[in-house]
Amino acid sequence: MTTAKDIMHAGAAWIPDGVMLDRAAELMRELGVGALPVSDDHERLCGILTDRDIVVGCVALGRDPSRVTAGELTRGTPRWIDADAGVDRVLREMIDHRVRRLPVMEGERMVGMISEADLARHLSGEEVGEWAARIYAGSDD
C-alpha cells in the first residue's frame, strides 16, 4: 500500500505563530514553497500560512506585513495526516476539507508535506483529475 510518507515532500519547515509575515514570505521564497505550517507556543500545529493568506489577509488590506504575525492569519482547525495513512485516506482528507496542502505527521513530529505537485508526481492522471475537480469545484481561488 502506498502511504502518505511515500508521496510527501520530506523535510517541510514550519514557523512559530509569532513570526512576522514579512519574514514568513522571505522564508517561503528561500524554500521555494507557497505555504508553511505554523506552530503554537507548545510546538503543536495550529495552522498553515499561505502566500495567498499574506496577500489577501494583510497586503490587500493595507496592513504592514512586518507588524502582523503568522498566528493572526491562521484560523480553524489544522488538518494533517498520519505518515502511515494510505493514499485513499490522504485524498479523502484533502477533498473532504478542501485543502491543497497537508502536513504529514509521525506522532507529534511533522515529517513532510503533501501538495498538489506531490499528487501529480505520484498518482495517475485520472486520480489527480478527480481530486482537482472535487477540490476546485465552487472554489473562489
Automatic annotation (TrEMBL):
Keywords: CBS domain. Gene3D superfamilies: CBS-domain. Signal peptide: none annotated. PROSITE patterns: CBS. Residues 8-66, 73-130 form the CBS domain. The keyword rRNA-binding does not apply. It comes from the Bacteria. This is CBS domain-containing protein. It comes from Streptantibioticus silvisoli.
